[in-house]
Amino acid sequence: MEKAIANVVRVDIITEETTPQLISVTTSDEVGCEPAINEGKEEVLRSKNRILAQNVTEDLVTGYDVTLKDTIVNPDQFALLDGGIITWDEAKEHFTYDGPQTGSVVSRKKFTIDVWSEEKDADGETLGFQRFRFRHAKGKPVKFTLKDGGFFAPEYTIKSRPKNGESPVNLMSFDEMPAAGQTAAQILAYNTQSAGA
Fold this sequence. Notes:
The chain has helices at residues 75-82, 184-189; strands at residues 4-15, 22-25, 28-38, 42-47, 50-56, 60-70, 85-88, 95-98, 111-120, 126-139, 155-160, 170-174. The protein has one domain. By secondary structure, the protein is mostly beta strands. It is globular. It contains 2 helices and 12 strands, in the order ββββββαββββββα. The N and C termini lie close together (10 Å). The strands form 3 sheets. Strands 1, 2, 3, 6, 9, 10, 11 and 12 form an 8-stranded antiparallel β-sheet that branches. It has a two-stranded antiparallel ribbon with strand order 4-5. Helix content is 7%, strand content 48%.
């Protein structure tokens, strides 16, 4: 069954810790996914103009490098992916963020990232949703540009590296997305029991 997939509807980031935290972002406008490949080798046994044998090892996927481009700044997302420390005031209106110390080892939190997209019909109607899930991800230092007359638009680079026996990416179709306001545990458990056909 063919599916026409479009748009970035929502990005859910769920930390992989005893009490997982959830950051949901609806302002990402572009997500790039590039496989990280450990390239195989091709060794050829040749005698003059004859190939006698070949010893070939296949390319292996070790995970994905995911790039998120956002239109606004979510300070908690920025801090998680960049690896620094964020402090909010009591009203959660103002914050202070300090990036990782120069020259020090950064212990970034691991997380699962879900990218939600829409399945579209020929008339533009949304028929369902597609979830792309990447596990055991870590952020890298955030890239951004400040420009006169333009908005601050961060670009996040994420490295997802699954464990042995796990898939580097999981795609699943759903009739509906998980509702806003669900917990991190509920988002992680949203699976085939609630999936569309």
